[in-house]
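Putative hemin transport system permease protein HrtB
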Amino acid sequence: MFLALKELIYAKTRYLLIGFIIVLVASLIFIISGLAKGLSANNASALEDLPADYIIMDKGADTELAKSTVPKSDIEKLKNIKDVQDAAPLSIRMANTTNADDKAVDIALFVTDKGSMLIPKAVKGSGIKNTNDIILDETAADDGVKLGDTLKFGDMKLHVAGFSENQRYSHTPVAYVTNEVFGDQSKAENEKVNGFAVKTNLGKDEVSSKMKGYSVFTKKEALKGIPSYSEEQASLQMMIVFLLIIAAFVLAVFFYVMTLQKRGQFGILKALGAKTGYLVRSLLSQVATISIVCIAVGAGLTYLIGKFLPDGMPFVIEPGMMAQSAALILVMALAGSLVSMFQVARIDPLEAIEGGEK
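Predicted structure tokens:
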């Protein structure tokens, strides 16, 4: 470590340039990770934050909840299963309405029972008290919808009683509404819903065995059924993977060239008795020190950039996500230095001292 720090201080200009490259690459990876998380939340936060463990659909739905159709009466069968803590019916209806200025607003209606565990708490306004009350995601305010507004959906008029947070589905704000809004239709014996959300300590296979004829999905599996969700996430994750590979390649080239330039120094150190392991550890310490400092600077720069992004841009930074990305960048940086370590191990002291750099 002593040799590594001495080298970093002595050739600070050279290492500052390398550090600048690492900061830029790390920042880019953090920003794309933030965009991926933001798009995920914008597309699916209503399902991600659903207070349930599994979502039950019909066999032919293939994770697409909006395409599933199940008889609502089967909710009683689900509730009677031992160790099922709670269960609620859920239907999703994409709709559009207009705000007070007659501007069109797209909204996803999540229909469930009154008093259902699925209805989120209001962060502004009140909860659902009357039949026509809804709790709407607060991002609808960006479209000009205010607390107390009455929104028309065909012949149906709904009153915005409260705003919730983190309730988005298919890039639109979610409005929670009770099935009582639909009057006699909700009381029909053959009423159909899209599926059931269930909270239980049972495993997925146990729930499946007790609900024969249905498909049981975890919330993560159900996300794949949201239109364009998998495609968006796959594209951004692929960009992150390529950036990590590029970062490893760039760092490998930088450290390899620097190792070649220092063959004479390494040769002299070996002639003086320095072990190959000591020199490899010194090089590894250099890479780790530069990478950790630059990743920290990149994280701070990304946080600063996030403060100045437009409000409408889906960008979310979470400590866990940043830590995971930082660990991957560090691993790729260390992997990129393996070529240089191999070069150090091959240095012949006599050849290097005689000026036989290759």
